[in-house]
């Protein structure tokens, strides 16, 4: 029983890592781009941003990043992020080339009149963009992501995120909270629940503070159910994966662990209490006999 209980904290810590490790992020502070200037702390949520300037009226192509063997999960995928720009002449765009093992090359470009696939023209404050692709059964061997400006202009790009894609899925613009907040939420919630689970394991293994342990397990169940419901609501609201996944995973796991442990813990404490009462009775009997 003690080993099972001590494993609660470990399971929740592992779940926290899983909840925050989904997808693949390009952090510009660790990625060098020819012609680009790093802007530390000037991106969305104070992340590092990348500034690219085109001074040539004849057009410029910036090769942003190449992702070999991208972790797309074998289905539709999307590269998304935030972009702002100023003085963009003509119709610029972000572009993703999906390269497959058979040599096939297919592009996705932000050339729509509006939305997350809108072209870059004129000026704009931070707005979301997406580069989705829905392949067949093949998985791409490489992704090439570029910025194309037909004339002069300045573009600033936040971190890029590669995720699985659902056409019905929500975009960053309608998200309940940011991707960074989602990661922080997963780490903090997993750490708190992991610490609580580890404490329950240690105390229950010693058979002490019965009421605290049982109240903590009850709290684990209630908090877990609450966050699982938040995760389910986020799924039905078509929120991005970084919104619903940590809440659903950590909340569901917490509730399940609490429910599984509730009855064994009550029986454990009941058995301990019975043994103590029998020991007291035995001492009283020996005292009377003496």
Radius of gyration: 27 Å
Q: How much helical structure, as a percent, in the residues?
A: 40-55%
| Run of helices and strands | HEEEEEEEEEEHHH
Mean pLDDT: 80
Main sheet characteristics: 10 strands, antiparallel
Please report the total strand number as a whole number.
Answer: 10
Strand content: 25-35%
The CATH superfamily label of the largest domain reads Galactose-binding domain-like
How many helical stretches?
Answer: 4
Do you know the CATH topology of the largest domain?
Jelly Rolls
- Which parts are unreliable, with pLDDT below 50 for 5 consecutive residues or more? 1-10, 12-22, 168-173
Q: Distance N terminus to C terminus?
A: 39 Å
- CATH C-level name of the largest domain: Mainly Beta
Structural class: alpha+beta
CATH architecture of the largest domain: Sandwich
Question: Rough shape?
Answer: elongated
Verbal overview:
By secondary structure, the protein is α+β, with helices and mostly antiparallel strands. The chain has two domains: 2-18 and 179-284; 28-158, Galactose-binding domain-like (Jelly Rolls, Sandwich), CATH 2.60.120. 42% of the residues lie in helices and 28% in strands. It contains four helices and ten strands. Strands 1, 2, 3, 4, 5, 6, 7, 8, 9 and 10 form a ten-stranded antiparallel beta sheet that branches. Strand 5 and strand 6 form a beta hairpin. The longest helix is centred in the C-terminal third of the chain and has 49 residues, at 241-289. The protein starts with a helix and ends with a helix.
């Amino acid at each position: 029983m003690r080993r099972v209980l001590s494993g609660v904290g470990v399971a929740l810590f592992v779940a926290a890592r899983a909840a925050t490790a989904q997808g693949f992020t390009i952090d510009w502070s660790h990625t060098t781009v020819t012609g680009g200037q790093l802007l530390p702390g000037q991106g969305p949520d104070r992340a590092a941003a990348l500034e690219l300037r085109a001074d040539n009226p004849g057009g410029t192509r910036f090769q942003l990043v190449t992702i070999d063997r991208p972790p797309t999960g074998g289905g539709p995928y999307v590269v998304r992020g935030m972009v702002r720009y100023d003085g963009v002449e003509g119709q610029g765009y972000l572009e993703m080339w999906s390269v497959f093992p058979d040599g096939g090359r297919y592009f996705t470009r932000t050339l729509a009149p509006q939305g997350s696939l809108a072209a870059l023209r004129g000026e704009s404050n931070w707005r979301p963009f997406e580069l989705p692709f829905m392949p067949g059964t093949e998985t791409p061997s490489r992704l090439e992501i570029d910025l194309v400006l037909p004339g002069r202009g300045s573009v600033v790009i936040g971190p890029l995120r590669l995720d699985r894609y659902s056409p019905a899925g929500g975009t960053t613009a309608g998200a309940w909270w940011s991707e960074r907040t989602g990661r922080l939420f997963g780490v903090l919630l997993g750490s708190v629940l992991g610490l609580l689970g580890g404490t329950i394991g240690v105390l229950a293994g010693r058979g002490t503070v019965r009421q605290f342990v049982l109240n903590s397990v009850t709290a684990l169940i209630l908090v877990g159910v609450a966050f699982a419901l938040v995760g389910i609501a986020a799924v039905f609201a078509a929120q991005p994966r970084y919104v619903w996944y940590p809440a659903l995973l950590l909340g569901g796991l917490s509730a399940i662990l609490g429910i599984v442990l509730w009855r064994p813990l009550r029986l454990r404490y009941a058995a301990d209490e019975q043994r103590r009462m029998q020991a007291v009775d035995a001492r009283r009997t020996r005292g009377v006999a003496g």
